[in-house]
Amino acid sequence: MARSSESYATAQEMAAKYRIGADTVRRKASSGKWPCDRIGRLYRFSPAQQDEIAQIVAGTQHGGYDKDRIAAALRKLRD
Questions:
Q1: Which end of the chain lies in a sparser environment, N or C, as judged by fewer CB atoms within 10 Å?
Q2: The whole model's pTM is what?
Q3: Cα separation, 47 vs 12, whole angstroms
Q4: Which residues face 37 on adjacent strands?
Q5: Largest Cα–Cα distance of the chain, in whole Å?
Q6: If pLDDT is split at 50, 70 and 90, which confidence band does 1 have?
Q7: Whole-angstrom Cα distance, residue 79 to residue 75?
């Protein structure tokens, strides 16, 4: 069954797309180099995030996302 272009991709699908290992995809996502959504232990990539990753891989955009941006925002509110 083919996925529509508007669906979330799994780490395995991203690995196949970029011809890298699924562990590498997870490592890039967990380190904040690639944007992703986490659902428990699972990594999912929205269509917008997939576009950002394509730009990062192509070299037109730099990766680097604050993995803990919610905690950082909460700290700012407390200060």
A1: N
A2: 0.69
A3: 15
A4: 44
A5: 50
A6: very low
A7: 6
